[in-house]
Specification:
Largest sheet: none
Number of strands: 0
Shape: globular
Strand content: under 5%
Distance between the termini: 102 Å
Radius of gyration: 39 Å
């Protein structure tokens, strides 16, 4: 018996221009989202296992997270086990499970970042030009590096800032932090540092597209520095001086590097400050011409206007007859 060959599915034609209909855009978006979510789920499972069981030559994720708290002196931490082991306090039955799940989800998001960033990249690039694709990939890579650098700095300054906070009034109380409180504090610090480190990248992007120039900011460095320190003082979750100064100095240095890039890029593209921006209002507007006299008034022609003929009123008899004829109760001969 001869085997029937199944017809092959036609290959999808290539689309070099990147043009797609709305339905194709939605299908492409669904495909990218499914792949990203699957990668995040796999990363979350790995992070959930890594929280307690680490690969060889690596520390468990839970040990890494509680490191700044365990680095505090023994007299600043409450001893719940009696053997001097560093432990965080749990006050509800599901707190330890939820803490482990949150840490695993955060680790999964970080571990799966190359996958979902690549999916975003593949979804955006069909509608961009070749040079725009190169810049987009560069900006995404730099954004990831800056966020990771800010998160690492937040982790290393946490033990110093935590020591300052825990030594305030330690004569009367001892620190007994719960896992949820400590994790929320660490997460807030990491996110604030990571997002704040993206500010120089935004400045560079605004300069490349021509909105921000070096001439606009070179005389406002002192004001910008003061605003950065105010931002750091308000946004740091613990308001300790060590974390505030570390965040403010780091952002100031990165912003200064971004300004120097703007200066170099403006010189490269021969961007100069317009001359009218250095003039006052009278010089920028130019000389004002003398007023011109107003000419005399001219007479308007008076042509004869024909008046419409007056409308003659109908005779009372005709009106009455028409009313009767409209009513339909009399003879129409009277109307004629």
């Amino acid at each position: 018996m001869a085997r029937t060959k199944t017809p092959k599915r036609p290959k999808r034609p290539k689309n070099p221009t990147g043009e797609m209909s709305l339905v194709e855009h939605l299908q492409e978006l669904r495909h990218r989202v499914i792949i990203s979510l699957a990668a995040i789920v796999v990363g979350t499972i790995i992070g959930f296992i890594w929280y307690q069981a680490a690969p060889p030559r690596m520390m468990p994720l839970g040990e890494i997270i509680r490191g700044p708290y365990c680095n505090l002196p023994d007299d600043l931490r409450a001893d719940f086990t009696g053997d001097g082991e560093c432990r965080l306090l749990a006050t509800s039955p599901f707190e330890m499970f939820m803490l482990r799940l949150k840490v695993g989800a955060l680790a999964g998001l970080v571990l799966a970042s190359p996958v979902w960033l690549m999916q975003i990249w593949n979804f955006i690039t069909p509608g961009l030009h070749k040079n725009e694709r190169r810049y987009t990939f560069t900006f995404v890579a730099v954004a990831v590096v800056l966020f990771v650098a800010g998160a690492l700095l937040a982790y290393f300054v946490l033990d110093k800032g935590l020591y300052v906070l825990m030594t305030m009034g330690n004569e009367f109380q001892v620190a007994a932090l719960t896992g949820g409180e400590y994790y929320n504090f660490l997460l807030a610090l990491v996110v604030i540092f990571g997002v704040s480190f993206e500010l120089p990248l935004i400045i560079v992007m605004l300069n490349l597209i021509g909105i921000l120039r070096y001439e606009h900011v070179k005389e406002k460095r002192r004001l910008i520095t003061v605003l950065i320190f105010i931002f750091a003082a308000v946004m740091t979750p613990g308001q300790d001086p060590f974390s505030m100064v570390a965040l403010a100095i780091s952002i100031t240095l990165l912003v200064e590097l971004a300004f120097q890039f703007c200066r170099w890029n403006d010189r490269k593209n021969h961007r100069q400050r317009p001359e009218w921006m250095d003039l006052d209002d009278e010089q920028a507007s130019g000389p004002i011409a003398a007023p011109t006299p107003v000419g005399g008034s001219s007479a308007i022609g008076t042509d004869a206007i024909e008046r419409p003929a007056p409308i003659q009123e109908a005779s009372p008899r005709r009106n009455i007859a028409s009313q009767r004829g409209f009513a339909g109760g009399t003879d129409f001969g009277d109307v004629l």
